[in-house]
Amino acid sequence: MTSEVSAALTEVDHVVGYAPYIDRVPQRAGLQRHASGNTVELDRARLALDLARAGERVAVVSGGDAGVFGMASAVFEAAEDLAYADVAVRVLPGLSAVQAVAARAGAPIGADFAVVSLSDRLKPWPVVEQRLHAIAEADLVLAIYNPASRSRTQQIVDTQKLLLEHRAPDTVVVIGRDVGRAEESLLVTTLAELDPDSIDMKCLLIIGASSTRRTRSGQVWTPRFVE
Amino acid sequence: MTSEVSAALTEVDHVVGYAPYIDRVPQRAGLQRHASGNTVELDRARLALDLARAGERVAVVSGGDAGVFGMASAVFEAAEDLAYADVAVRVLPGLSAVQAVAARAGAPIGADFAVVSLSDRLKPWPVVEQRLHAIAEADLVLAIYNPASRSRTQQIVDTQKLLLEHRAPDTVVVIGRDVGRAEESLLVTTLAELDPDSIDMKCLLIIGASSTRRTRSGQVWTPRFVE
Fold it and tell me: Residue A57 to residues A25, A54, A87: CA-CA distances in angstroms?
């Protein structure tokens, strides 16, 4: 958490967010906490906007960076409703999951990269596939958010197959799980050896470019240069 | 700066980096500062590794996130030399320039996005062009690092032309300059109206996807969904 975010959290009347993120906000007298379940982003955004419209100061919290597959877009989406025309929205950046995983691994996103969510909850799967083909053909490092969920396990299987059409089997893959939390773990493997059954919603994947490599001690980095 | 980075900076004997970033490190007794010029990343990395090999504790500092077009990759590149086999390298993440600009603008990278450096100092320009075509065809939001320098002004001209082959003239463009510093500024314009002459090395650009839009108050966001 940045000092800018810590300071903002001392100034609000309400925090709104997915329960596990609300739990990380320090409690204090006068702060009302509104924890909600997963996948109800718009409801959560509307609750925050309703409170703000009534004159309250509200912080909507996300894990990582709210601007990177976090709540920021959902708040702007809900705020398109003219009822919220007078509500001021300000976004404070945070460390995104892709940066946290990258730093733990070394410097895998040290060159041109792309960040894609594999969830087809908000976009058609063919759009995701087209993007993956384009990214692989352009030899960008690829960070994958939302690789799987309990009910959504086919996407990472299909993604591995698709990427192997473009990338070598020994392409370096980093799997970060719960990074930034006490139970964090990191696995470095290859595109061919990636086990889709081991991937769930707590994972973030970084698929290397063709130049991504491992050091003798197992750290992963992508050269800045392209030969 | 995160608390993790602040803590690390109190524990080292040396800081090494580009002069403007060294200037931001709080001074204290016993801390030796090694400021260097721009574009000498490998020399700087070797200096840090030489100090570390001699038993000193060294921090190499970057602006933004060292892992995103910062010094992390350069340090791993220099550390490939077997002379540095015993030096341990650890990367601490920071807020990247793309996140800082995105947050100031609203939520422009709230959906799938790519991050590309326009510099052809370390990769052939045709590689950059191929990547820009792929990213534009896949309708990803595009963040551009190093859009221009004093001697390198043609790339942003060519990029604007190239992107207009794929994207509508009214595609939203965010230009952040010196974001995160006292003199920061932000301009929201369109792909057709973007003035290449106004772009220099202090700028970071975010080119919207087709869905990227402005709010009534001028904030920029990209919907999470694709219709």
Answer: 15, 9, 10
Nearest Cα residue in chain A from B117 = A112
Tokens representing residue A79 in the block: 């705020």
CB neighbourhood size of A65 (10 A): 26
Report pLDDT digits (tens) over A163-179. 999 999 999 999 999 99
DSSP codes of every residue in B83-101: GGTT----------HHHHH
Q: Is A134 on the interface with B (CB under 8 A)?
A: yes
Asked whether the beta carbons of residue B73 and residue A107 sit closer than 8 angstroms, the reply is yes
Q: Which residues of B touch A226 (CB under 8 A)?
A: 122-124, 127
The residues with which B115 forms a beta bridge, in sequence order, are: A113, B143
- Enumerate the residues of chain A whose CB falls inside 8 A of the CB of residue B79: 215
**CA dihedral in degrees (B138, B139, B140, B146; nearest 10)?**
100
pTM: 0.97
> Which residue among A69, A72, A130 places its CB closest to the CB of B138?
A130
* pLDDT single digits (tens) A34-87: 999 887 999 999 999 999 999 999 999 999 999 999 999 999 999 999 999 999
